[in-house]
Design brief:
The protein is an all-alpha fold. It has two domains: 1-59, Arc Repressor Mutant, subunit A (Orthogonal Bundle), CATH 1.10.10; 62-194. Helix content is 75%, strand content 0%. Helix 9 runs antiparallel to helix 10 (175-191).
């Protein structure tokens, strides 16, 4: 590809990015003013000053726009440490993420009220799990691939559980303190090893587990 072609492609990419940003910003502004189900594509187009043909060249509908915008946000947030060549042992930018949520608390409240928060958390957990797994892979302490993946998904779920608790508590604890709390949990999870007797203990089957239950049930049925 020639230099002129590369320059034209970059300009096109920037133009597409600006269009997507305008549409995403317009949808957020509308969400702060009215329920998601009441928002029409035309209202988004009018606010963003984008044509209908341009919109449908990128998105199927307003739901596709919403999820794409959320996906783009979490992709950037989950890879923030890697993109900034962060050399700390942090596995996720928890402080930065919580700061963003605090600054956009009105929008977060709208997501909760509308029920869209479940879609947001699902996308967020997936992105953070991938980002955390990549950070764990870079740690000097070796972890098996399976353990690393399991821990990454567990930590991502814990992160959003911690976020929900923090919001319900009125965000009284600083984002930096929440970052420290989260990474304290991560350190314990990464460095701990299950006792040998737990790993080697015989696993009870469904039938063997059911037997004492029914024995107990019979004891109280008389």
């Amino acid at each position: 590809m020639s230099e002129n072609s590369l320059s034209a492609a970059r300009k096109l990419d920037r133009r597409v990015a600006r269009t997507r940003d305008r549409l995403g910003d317009a949808l957020v502004e509308l969400l702060l003013a009215k329920p998601f189900d009441d928002i029409t594509v035309q209202e988004v187009l009018d606010r963003a000053q984008v044509s209908r043909s341009t919109f449908y060249a990128h998105y199927r509908d307003k739901n596709d726009l919403f999820l794409s915008d959320v996906d783009q946000f979490f992709e950037g947030m989950a890879t923030l440490l890697a993109r900034h060549a962060d050399r700390s042992e942090r596995v996720a930018p928890v402080g930065e993420f919580f700061t963003h949520v605090a600054e956009a608390r009105d929008f977060y409240a709208v997501l909760v009220e509308s029920g869209r928060i479940h879609d947001v958390k699902e996308l967020g957990e997936a992105h953070f799990a991938r980002g955390i797994e990549q950070r764990l892979e870079q740690r000097p302490r070796s972890l098996s691939k399976e353990r690393r993946a399991a821990l990454a998904h567990a930590f991502a779920g814990a992160l959003f559980s911690l976020l929900s608790w923090w919001v319900r508590q009125g965000m009284r604890t600083s984002p930096r303190e929440m970052d420290d709390l989260f990474h304290g949990m991560v350190l314990q999870g990464v460095t701990s090893r299950p006792p040998a007797e737990v790993l080697n203990a015989p696993r009870r089957t469904g039938a063997s587990l059911a037997k004492p239950f029914f024995e107990l049930k019979g004891r109280f049925s008389h």
